[in-house]
């Protein structure tokens, strides 16, 4: 990339967020920090209204825009959902191209919209590769995104899954994620006076209230940890050789998969599950290729299941010999 094209790209990137650090620019264009500083100075000399703030980075003066395109709130929030989906459903090259295009799109957003997208990015997640259109409720999802962005109290009617009980709820939204064919809302429920997880397809008549909350709620990642500590979910960590991951690459999304990382020479997978028994009966088919890191209860249960299986196999063999 020649310098003129790089300067234009840097200007576009500067318009995509409220603040951009020199390190971010350096990483994206694979250039040194010294080159970043020279390029920024060149933009300033060309009349681009830039400001710099220690600890935050560079920013453009509010109102400075290149293309005459504007987005409303719903369109801006839809960009975030599109980015999350593209990350899950395309290969790396297409995903990177989309991110590059998205930076250009974000460059025309207002500061408030940029802040909202940055804020929402930590509150929305995909933990599945199976999307079913029948379970989507676009109007409710847009309302939730607005509530997350503005810290607005949401009001809606909810039908519980087990008891099929209808209740009216007022909640402070914390995060939203997609897993196992459904969207879920995590929120602080004023009726229950505690955090709750709501299946979005069971939410009706959602309204964005005028009340704004200032509660410092946990992030999506922190909430999952909180659920684990509260015994609503059990955290399971297993390791295996990289060559074996292909055997569960699709199935893992139906068993509470949330994280995959490389630890030394092993691939480590983290699951958040509601039923350790259900997980144990699935993963028993992988017993010869996995190491259970935690919890010990899973190792103990697998040992019992395997011992029982071996006993039954021996009994079956003896019966055949007798016949």
From TrEMBL:
<feature type="domain" description="HTH deoR-type">
    <location>
        <begin position="3"/>
        <end position="58"/>
    </location>
</feature>
<dbReference type="InterPro" id="IPR028349">
    <property type="entry name" value="PafC-like"/>
</dbReference>
<dbReference type="InterPro" id="IPR036390">
    <property type="entry name" value="WH_DNA-bd_sf"/>
</dbReference>
<dbReference type="GO" id="GO:0003700">
    <property type="term" value="F:DNA-binding transcription factor activity"/>
</dbReference>
<dbReference type="Pfam" id="PF08279">
    <property type="entry name" value="HTH_11"/>
</dbReference>
<protein>
    <recommendedName>
        <fullName>HTH deoR-type domain-containing protein</fullName>
    </recommendedName>
</protein>
<dbReference type="InterPro" id="IPR051534">
    <property type="entry name" value="CBASS_pafABC_assoc_protein"/>
</dbReference>
<dbReference type="InterPro" id="IPR036388">
    <property type="entry name" value="WH-like_DNA-bd_sf"/>
</dbReference>
<keyword id="KW-0805">Transcription regulation</keyword>
<dbReference type="InterPro" id="IPR013196">
    <property type="entry name" value="HTH_11"/>
</dbReference>
<dbReference type="InterPro" id="IPR001034">
    <property type="entry name" value="DeoR_HTH"/>
</dbReference>
<dbReference type="Pfam" id="PF13280">
    <property type="entry name" value="WYL"/>
</dbReference>
<dbReference type="InterPro" id="IPR026881">
    <property type="entry name" value="WYL_dom"/>
</dbReference>
<keyword id="KW-0804">Transcription</keyword>
């Amino acid at each position: 990339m020649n310098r003129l094209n790089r300067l234009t790209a840097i200007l576009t990137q500067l318009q995509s967020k409220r603040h951009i650090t020199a390190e971010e620019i350096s990483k994206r264009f694979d250039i040194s920090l010294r080159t970043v500083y020279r390029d920024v100075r060149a933009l300033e000399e060309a009349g681009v209204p830039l400001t710099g703030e220690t600890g935050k980075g560079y920013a453009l003066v509010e109102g400075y825009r290149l293309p005459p395109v504007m987005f409303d709130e719903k369109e801006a929030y839809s960009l975030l959902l599109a980015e999350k989906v593209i990350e899950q459903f395309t290969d790396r090259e297409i995903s990177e191209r989309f991110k590059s295009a998205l930076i250009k799109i974000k460059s025309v957003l207002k500061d408030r919209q940029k802040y909202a997208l940055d804020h929402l990015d930590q509150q929305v997640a995909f933990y599945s590769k199976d999307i079913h259109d029948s379970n989507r409720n676009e109007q409710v999802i847009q309302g939730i995104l607005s509530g997350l962005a503005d810290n607005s109290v949401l009001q809606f009617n909810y039908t519980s899954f087990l008891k099929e009980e209808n209740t009216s709820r007022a909640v402070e939204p914390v995060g939203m994620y997609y897993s196992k064919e459904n969207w879920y809302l995590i929120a602080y429920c004023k009726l229950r006076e505690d955090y709750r997880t709501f299946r979005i397809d069971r939410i009706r008549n959602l309204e964005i209230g005028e009340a704004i909350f200032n509660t410092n709620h946990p992030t999506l990642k922190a909430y999952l940890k909180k659920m684990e500590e509260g015994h609503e979910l059990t955290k399971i960590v297993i390791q295996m050789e990289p060559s074996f991951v292909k055997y569960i690459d699709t199935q893992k999304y139906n068993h509470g998969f949330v994280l995959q990382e490389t630890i030394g020479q092993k691939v480590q997978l983290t699951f958040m599950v509601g039923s350790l028994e259900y997980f144990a009966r699935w993963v028993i088919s992988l017993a010869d290729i996995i190491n259970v890191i935690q919890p010990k209860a899973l190792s103990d249960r697998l040992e019992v299941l395997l011992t029982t299986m071996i006993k039954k196999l021996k009994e079956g063999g003896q019966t055949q010999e007798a016949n």
